[in-house]
Amino acid sequence: MSIDKIAPVKALGVATATLAGAWAIAAAYRHQRRLPLPPGPPEKSWMAGSADDIPTLFKWIKFTEWAKEYVDLFETRGQIYSDRPVRSMPFLMGWRDIASFRDNDSHFKTFRRHTSIGFSKKAVADYHDSLTKEVHILLQRLLRKSSDLNLELNRFAASFIMKVTYGYSIIGINDPYILASDEAFRSLIPAVTESYLVDSYPIIQYLPSWLPGMGFKRMAQEARKYPTKMAREPFEWTKEQIHRGNAAPSLVRRLLEENEDGEIGEEAIMWTAGSMYAGGAHTTVTAMNNFIAAMMLHPNIASKAREEIDRVIGTERLPAISDRVDLPYLECVLSETLRWQPPASMGEFSVVKPSHDNILQGPRGISSREAGG
């Protein structure tokens, strides 16, 4: 076929694909418009819905106003609204199996079951020695090199989570497993902080990559390797230690030992473990920074907590986990810090199944962000 004949054929293919995509988007939009929506602010446009009503700053003030205006929907109907809204870009980038992105489905329930096994009261007691050791290392390093507090807190959180999850002792903040995790998180940041058309219109992910506007597909394909590397490499390391007979107590070891019959599946265990670092490292550092800030802002509270520690424990040793029951004031200070500045905001909710009652009629899959249409 000559070049003169190829060009019209290619143009026809582009036009056909574009029209097909436009038709699919329009059909999905018409279907969504026919479904009843939860109460909320009226939409401003057919494309953005009520997104313009969400302020850029101090969002919680507006959300509190809406909560009072549109009645309580989540407290008494938690099972209905416990899904997560579909975010296509993180899924395309390989984060579908991390717990924070999962719906309230069988996979998420498996994750919950795993964590209840790995972090039961009996299991957590096995980690006390590791935690105490890491706390002592942190304090010694701060005494010797206190100029970079955040770096030391990050090293502490990473070290403890890797020890508890995999039985692995990191070699430092530049440990290869830590670097792999940080690289994975950096690749995820654009997917959760920026807006992609595919998040609003998931069907376009099935359009050809060579069409205009499909650059997100190439970006997602490049990023897919990072979460898998983050989850798989330390998991395989722990399996090797178990095989050699020298694995330290850890979440992965406990789950693998209880799964000798293969009922669960190693992939599920691998992603459960991967979710631990994903959900715990940065929130732990944030919580510790918030506590330090609170003590600097309220020196009178810090002084009372210190007085309680000196009275109960003395000055000859450091506090131990077993001392918590005898330090009620400090325990309340820690709890209040978490209430005052939660280390992570609540994620959006999504409807698990259609709800029909006097307050709400909403289709399955509608998210709290979309409540206004």
TrEMBL record:
InterPro entries (alphabetical): Cyt_P450, Cyt_P450_E_grp-I, Cyt_P450_sf, Cytochrome_P450_fung
Keyword Ubl conjugation carried by entry: no
The keyword Metal-binding is assigned to this record: yes
UniProt entry keywords in alphabetical sequence: Heme, Iron, Metal-binding, Monooxygenase, Oxidoreductase
Cofactor: heme
Signal peptide: none
GO molecular function, one term: oxidoreductase activity, acting on paired donors, with incorporation or reduction of molecular oxygen
Pathway in which this enzyme or protein is active: Secondary metabolite biosynthesis
Family: Belongs to the cytochrome P450 family.
Protein's recorded name: Cytochrome P450 domain-containing protein
